[in-house]
User: What shape does this take?
Amino acid sequence: MPDFKIVISDPETKQLKIMKVKVKVDENVKSIDGEKDGKALPIAKLNSKLKQALNLDKLLTLQIEKQEGDKKVKIKVHFLVQIDDSLPDNEVHISKNIAEKFGAEDFEALAYRTKAFQISIDQSKLNLFGTKIGDKINLVISDTPFTLKITGGSDNSGFPMRPDISGPAKRRVLVSGPPGYIPREDGERKRKMLRGDTISNEIVQINTVIVR
Assistant: This one.
């Protein structure tokens, strides 16, 4: 079975606090199976003072800009936060394995609270068939539990799910707004092929928000 691509957004991440931090490889930060291919989140260690300064919860994003040929490329990696108050202020420690994505073991990066990230989950390990938009699910990512609310999704042909269409099937319906249709003028409506509100084996992406 193909993987579910689960997009997870944090509704409490609004005005970001962005800080420049020192990032170092630490042999005490262990790599997690699946972190390189998007099936797990890597760990980032930092002290509680930095966590508070960045207004973090469970998640941290590190971002750099690096030159590749004649253009600059942004590299962003999302991490699960672990607190270690023995670390210096303004310093984040990561594994050697994940540092390869940045191309360095000792560098400066922008750090901020993660707004959204995507993770791949094997469908055979997470049975979501029959769950609907609005339902809550429990998901463990890299040994960290999350409660998520399903807000939408799309199937293997790119047709989006609609909360106002019951069931898992595709239907051609008259709609006046998103998801699946953005009117060009007020009051404009159009008949579109859309998915129902229920997850089936044809759904490949599921959109969720973190529930606290």
Q: What stands out?
A: The mean pLDDT is 93. The helical segments are 48-53, 96-102. The first strand starts at residue 3 and ends at 9.
